[in-house]
Amino acid sequence: MQESIIVDIIKSALWTASIISAPILVTAVAVGVFMGLLQSVTQIQEQTLGFVPKFAAVGLAIALTGGWMLQTMTDFTLELIARIPDLL
To answer: For residues 78 and 42, what is the distance between their CA atoms, to the nearest angstrom?
Structure first.
């Protein structure tokens, strides 16, 4: 088995994982920064005040992009299965 094939598979797996996690991470960071600014402006320092909107926004992001994420993971898995003969 060639090392270049393994490196290519690992690179593809990391790229796919980063693309799939991007909508959730960007949503969580954006809502977290907004809630942090809102808390500092209003001087309300309640921990749960930042958690609930972030939880709801991440849930909405998963609901909106879940089908795309599942399709991307399925495509990657099918690509890996198709490459099995190259690995043997």
So the answer is: 51
Domains in the chain: boundaries: 3-87
Cα dihedral 23, 26, 28, 29, rounded to 10, equals 170
Banded model confidence at residue 26, pLDDT cuts 50, 70, 90: very high
- C-alpha 60/C-alpha 26 separation (Å) is 13
Distance of alpha carbon 37 from the chain centroid:
24
The predicted-structure confidence for 31-82, as pLDDT tens digits, reads as follows 999 998 888 888 887 777 778 889 999 999 999 999 999 999 999 999 999 9
CA pair distance 30, 47, nearest whole angstrom: 17
Smallest CA-to-CA distance from 14 within 76, 74, 79 is with: 76
